[in-house]
Write a structure and sequence with these properties.
Blueprint (H helix, E strand, L loop, with lengths): L16 H8 L6 E2 L11 H9 L13 H11 L6 E4 L1 H13 L5 E5 L5 H8 L3 E5 L8 H7 L4 E7 L11 H10 L6 E4 L14 H7 L3 E6 L12 E4 L2 H10 L7 H12 L1 H19 L14 E5 L3 H9 L3 E2 L1 E3 L2 E5 L3 H12 L4
Parallel strand pairs: 1-10, 3-4, 3-5, 5-6, 6-7
Antiparallel strand pairs: 2-8, 7-8, 9-12, 11-12
Protein name: Histidinol-phosphate aminotransferase
Pfam families: Aminotran_1_2
Pathway: Amino-acid biosynthesis; L-histidine biosynthesis; L-histidine from 5-phospho-alpha-D-ribose 1-diphosphate: step 7/9
Length: 351
C-alpha cells in the first residue's frame, strides 16, 4: 500500500436531509444547496435522449466518446484529437496526475481550491505547494514565484471553487507569458457557463498563443448533468495521446454521452439557466450583507464569517443545507424563494 495515502481520507459527503432533520429536530422540507448543482436540472431534451437509448444498456459504450467529442470539437472549433473525456472532471484530473507525476515532482496551486488537485498529487507521491489566497482569489504572482525546475503541473481554478472569484483575461495572459512552455498550466473552468463578466478569459484563444495552456470543462454544473459524470480536457494533441493511455476503455457511459449531446445542442436552455442564475446571484449582492460576500461568477456565493458553523446552522433551520468551510460558508444559488430565505438569514446574522 502506498504510504502517502495515509495523509488522505476518503471523500465525506454531508449528512442526508433525513439525518439532518433528526439531528436538528427540523420539520418541513430541506433544500440541498451544498454541492453547486444546477437545481433547474438539464434541458428537457436530455430526458428524451436518454429514453431513446434505454434499450442499449446491455452494450458497452463506444470507447473515447466519439459522438460527444465530435460535437464539442464543432462547438469549440478545436481539433477532436485535442479533446479527452472522463467520468466527470474528477477522473480527468486523476488521469492527468497519474500520467504526469512521479515521486518528488511538484505541483503548484492555491489554497482553498478544488481538492482533487492536491489529492491526486499526494497519491502519486508528488509535492504540493498551495499558495495563500489574495483578496479571496488566486494569487497568480505568488504562484509564479513558486514555479521552478521541479514543477510538473500548475493548477488554476477559474472561477474558483469554493470562493467564486475569478481572474481576468489580461491577468491570465500575463501569467502564461511567464510560465516556462514545458510546464502544463491546467485551467479548470467547471463553472464557465455561469460567467457573465466581460473580462473573463477567452482560454480557447489563449491556447493558440500558449501551447501549455490546457482547459477543463464539464457537463456537471450549468448543463445539469452532475449525476451522469462527464467532463473533458482540451489540450495539446501530444498530451492527449499520452493521457489517453491512462483512460479506462469504457469510462464514459452510453447514456451519459447521449445526455451530454442533447444538453449541448440546447444552447437556448443553457442561456436561460445563465440568465436565471445571474438574476438570483445579483439579489445577494444587492442585500445589506453584501460586504461579507466574495464577488462571484458562479452558481454559488461564498460568505466570509468568523462563525461558519453558527451560520451553517442558522441557514439549516430555515431549510437550507449549505457547505461549511473554516473561514466561511458556501451557498448554492437556488430557486427565488430559497434565495430569499437565505438572504434574510444573512441580513440578520452577525457575520
Amino acid at each position: 500500500m502506498k504510504k502517502q495515502i495515509e495523509q488522505l481520507s476518503a471523500y465525506q459527503p454531508g449528512l442526508s436531509p433525513r439525518a439532518l432533520k433528526e439531528q436538528y429536530g427540523i420539520e418541513g422540507e430541506l433544500y440541498k444547496l451544498a454541492s453547486n448543482e444546477n437545481l433547474y436540472g438539464p434541458s428537457p431534451k436530455v430526458k428524451d435522449a436518454i429514453t431513446q437509448h434505454l434499450d442499449e444498456l446491455q452494450f458497452y459504450p463506444e470507447t473515447g466518446s466519439p459522438l460527444i467529442k465530435e460535437a464539442i470539437s464543432e462547438h469549440l472549433n478545436v481539433d477532436p484529437a485535442r479533446i479527452l473525456f472522463g467520468a466527470g472532471l474528477d477522473e480527468v484530473i486523476l488521469m492527468i496526475s497519474r500520467a504526469v507525476l512521479t515521486k518528488g515532482d511538484k505541483i503548484v496551486t492555491s489554497e482553498m481550491t478544488f481538492g482533487q488537485y492536491y489529492h491526486n498529487a499526494i497519491v502519486e507521491a508528488a509535492d504540493v505547494v498551495q499558495v495563500p489566497l489574495k483578496d479571496g482569489g488566486f494569487d497568480l504572482e505568488g504562484i509564479l514565484s513558486e514555479v521552478d525546475d521541479n514543477t510538473k503541473l500548475v493548477w488554476l481554478c477559474n472561477p474558483n471553487n469554493p470562493t467564486g472569484t475569478y481572474f481576468t483575461h489580461d491577468e491570465l495572459q500575463r501569467f502564461l507569458s511567464r510560465v516556462p512552455q514545458e510546464i502544463p498550466v491546467i485551467i479548470d473552468e467547471a463553472y464557465v457557463e455561469f460567467v457573465t463578466a466581460e473580462d473573463f478569459p477567452n482560454s480557447l484563444a489563449l491556447q493558440e498563443q500558449f501551447s501549455n495552456a490546457f482547459l477543463l470543462r464539464t457537463f456537471s454544473k450549468a448543463y445539469g448533468l452532475a449525476g451522469m459524470r462527464i467532463g473533458y480536457v482540451v489540450a495539446a494533441q501530444e498530451a492527449i495521446e499520452k493521457w489517453n493511455i491512462i483512460r479506462p476503455p469504457f469510462n464514459v457511459g452510453r447514456l451519459s454521452e447521449h445526455a451530454a449531446l442533447a444538453a449541448l445542442e440546447d444552447q437556448a436552455y443553457l442561456d436561460s439557466i445563465r440568465e436565471k442564475n445571474a438574476r438570483e446571484r445579483a439579489k445577494f449582492f444587492d442585500s445589506v450583507s453584501s460586504h461579507k460576500l466574495n464577488p462571484s461568477q458562479t452558481n454559488f456565493i461564498f460568505v466570509n464569517t468568523s462563525r461558519p458553523h453558527e451560520l451553517y446552522e442558522a441557514l439549516l433551520k430555515q431549510g437550507c443545507i449549505t457547505r461549511e468551510f473554516p473561514k466561511g460558508v458556501r451557498i448554492t444559488i437556488g430557486f427565488p424563494e430559497q434565495n430569499d430565505k437565505m438572504i434574510e438569514v444573512l441580513n440578520n446574522f452577525d457575520l
